[in-house]
Amino acid sequence: MQMILGFFGEYCNHSNVCLREPCAPGAECVAKLAGRICICNGGDHPECYPENDPCAMSPCLNGGECGRSLTNPRGFICSCPKYYTGTFCEQRLSVCALAEEEGSSLMRETFTMTRRNAEQSEGTNNAMPETALCLNGGICVDHPKLFTYFCDCPKEWTGKRCEKRVIEVRL
Prior knowledge:
Blueprint: E1 7-8, E2 14-15, H1 17-20, E3 28-32, E4 35-39, E5 48-49, E6 65-68, E7 76-79, E8 84-85, E9 91-92, H2 95-100, H3 105-122, E10 139-142, E11 149-152, E12 157-158, E13 164-165
Parallel strand pairs: 4-5
Antiparallel strand pairs: 1-2, 3-4, 6-7, 8-9, 10-11, 12-13
């Protein structure tokens, strides 16, 4: 079977997008199933991708997805999953640090969740201050694996937020 210029495949049913849409001068056009890419050696044309695929080595961590970027000097950008940040999704967000940022929606959600849990376990509607995750000198500590926290309470306090006074009973 004779091939028609610009088409390929067993039945000449696939068109060569590189002939229809050539790349910038000096760039190599590589046809893909869903279009084409232009490989430019040192070129800075907006369509040019670096010669090597910057995502080939999977630079994004913690389940981040790598995508090519023509504007980022590294040639890629990581889209990070929930609770991760950083150039390579290498940093886990800190509940404690986020709670310190006043007005954070996460802070409000965390306080609402904490207040609901306290109300359910206590059976009361104590007004918990919304200025700190840990009360009465407690220190906020991020959970090592989950996106949550616990409070390291002074010895005279206990509870999720160090909100309950420890009562000593002498015998």
